[in-house]
Amino acid sequence: xxxxxxxxxPKTLTIVLNRGPFISEYADMAVNLxxxxxxxxxxxxxxxxxxxxxxxxxxxxxxxxxxxxxLRSAMRKGVNxxxxxxxxxxxxxxxxxxxxxxxxxxxxxxxxxWLKESDKVVTFxx
Amino acid sequence: MLIEVFRNTPAGRGCLVxxxxxxxxxxxxxxxxxxxxxxxxxxxxxxxxxxxxxxILIGGKVYAPGILTIEEIxxxxxxxxxxxxxMILTKSPFESEDxxxxxxxxxxxxxxxDPVDVFLLGDAVWLAKANLGGEIGDMMARxxxxxxxxxxxxxxxxxxxxxxxxxxDIEVCRKPYDTLTDLVMERWDRVVSL
Lengths: 126, 194
Fold this sequence. Notes:
The complex is a heterodimer.
Chain A: E1 12-17, H1 26-39, E2 43-48, H2 67-76, E3 80-84, H3 85-92, E4 105-106, H4 108-117, E5 120-124
Parallel strand pairs in A: 1-2, 1-5, 2-3, 3-4
Chain B: E1 2-8, H1 13-28, E2 34-40, H2 43-47, E3 55-58, E4 62-65, H3 70-80, E5 85-89, H4 98-111, E6 116-120, H5 134-146, E7 148-152, H6 153-158, E8 170-173, H7 176-187, E9 190-193
Parallel strand pairs in B: 1-2, 5-6, 5-9, 6-7, 7-8
Antiparallel strand pairs in B: 1-3, 3-4
Helix pairs in contact in B: 1-3, 4-5
């Protein structure tokens, strides 16, 4: 690989989502892309930022297709999901217990690390 | 790749060193290089916006003045290497200026040799319409002469846009997230999402 990275190691995609669920399709786009990329064998990170943290709050089963269900499915397939702690807990009173299990609240430095480690980054910011 | 070397007339020591370093670098590397020596000052240099010599312009987009070392020249050639750019658009041209901004970046990028693809997702599929009017319609037509446009099939269907009503040079993706994953991870060097 011309950038010197290990060609035997799966590439990493980081997706940054800034928009909440049910107000636009951005959350669905982000999770659909994450799921598809994971199914194709890539490492996938999804960072929930700003209003994107509300997606992790869609926890319960519903009688209609919803992004929370897709997110849980993506996590079961191995998509690595983290929420911005400042955006969730401090700004929107969303604690880790309010979120889908397995999504930690982390600082912005985690996103910076992901950006540095990723082969590609896609943002859904609306 | 075109390397243009701007040299004083008569060429001084700095110009000769730069010339030697360029030739040494190119002779040492595989690849398709074309080298042009252009006098400075000259009308041609002025037209290219060159204000000093010695200097080099690589691929028409990376410019550096001074007596550059072989390593510096190598770094500049790498910078000038064509990079494919993918633009993911998600908004209709009626609700935001994003498409105009994206194509305003895409058109000059293609002029300097960087291939650009545009992927229409969500409401951006309205950009696929064949009879799109106004400035954005003209820009899409100009873009499609050289650039590739992909559009999400399910979003076209959801918007009720008939396949016969879209530009015929657009590739409609029945599984848009599959195609988008392949493009993002394997085809595009750089991704811009708006």
